[in-house]
Design goal:
Blueprint lengths: L1 E2 L2 E2 L2 H6 L6 E5 L1 H4 L7 H9 L6 E5 L5 H5 L4 H11 L5 E5 L2 H5 L1 H4 L26 H22 L5 E5 L20 H6 L4 H22 L7 E4 L18 H18 L5
Parallel strand pairs: 2-4, 3-4, 3-5, 5-6, 6-7
Antiparallel strand pairs: 1-2
Length: about 270
């Protein structure tokens, strides 16, 4: 499967006689299969201006843990071993599925949030298991492990670019108009007031952003953070987790492209 200079399987790439200069390790923001594609389709067109070829690794629904200890670990290690020395960059999209499912978000919320006055009081306290702090530590550990592998396997000039999605809207919309089992269901089950539900999602995204900013400090010359918070309004979202093509394109052009140009990956 391919789209212009983006490949989602190495077999198609080999048939075309090309090799990747960029790996894109990601979840549905790199794999979303519906018309208009995902974020990586638009990033592909940007880096095509520098004649880059992208090979996407991962899958829809992938969690950060899957990249280093789970089902995509072998795939990613193999790709790094085969292509690491010739890579210009690795893009990473991960962490969203670690908290977006009802079975992921609900345990981090208090049993009854109906009396909450702000979003922070909706989350369980402390850093024990199944708290927001515990989850962010787990995501950070997975990112650090993956980035360590990339730094070892790739040439010194290769860049690593991570991102933080945007403030998803917990409106209950799923794919093809179905009811979602992602954000709103978990928030409603916990009794979170409707006026605080969007702020709860912002709390999680903001907390993820702090972790990603910290991760760039491992090597600021090579690891770069694309902050895409606040890019989209309600009209740009197709469902609770995924923008429409126009939303993906907006994030690619306004948030990613300035970083890619600065890194010499886009003209």
């Amino acid at each position: 499967m391919k789209f212009e200079n983006v490949y989602w399987d190495e077999g198609s790439m080999k048939v075309d006689g090309v090799y990747p200069s960029i790996l894109a390790v990601g979840d549905s923001w790199f794999w979303y299969p519906f018309p208009g594609g995902s974020l990586i389709n638009h990033l592909g067109r940007l880096v095509a201006t520098r004649e880059h070829i992208i090979l996407a690794l991962g899958a829809n629904g992938a969690e950060a843990f899957d990249y280093t200890h789970g089902k995509y670990n072998k795939m990613i290690r193999t790709a790094l071993r085969m292509h690491g020395a010739s890579l210009s960059a690795v893009f990473i999209s991960g962490g969203g599925n670690d908290f977006a499912g009802v079975n992921d978000l609900r345990p981090m919320l208090r049993d009854d949030c109906s009396g909450a006055q702000d979003s922070s009081s909706c989350f369980r306290d402390g850093n024990g298991e199944l708290t927001l702090e515990w989850l962010m530590g787990k995501i950070s550990e997975s990112y650090r492990s993956l980035i360590g592998q990339i730094l070892v396997a790739s040439r010194p000039g290769a860049k690593i670019v991570v991102h933080n999605y945007d403030y998803a809207i917990p409106n209950g919309k799923g794919i093809f108009g179905r009811k979602a089992t992602w954000l709103r269901q978990a928030l409603e089950d916990a009794g979170v007031p409707a006026t605080l539900q969007a702020d709860c999602v912002k709390t999680v995204i903001n907390r993820l952003s702090i972790e990603l900013e910290e991760i760039t400090k491992i090597d600021p010359s090579r690891i770069h953070f694309v902050d895409s918070r606040g890019s989209l309004d309600a009209s740009h979202w197709a469902n609770e987790l995924h923008p429409k093509p126009s939303g993906f394109r907006l994030i690619a052009m306004e948030k990613w492209n300035p970083v890619l140009v600065r890194l010499g990956l886009s003209a």
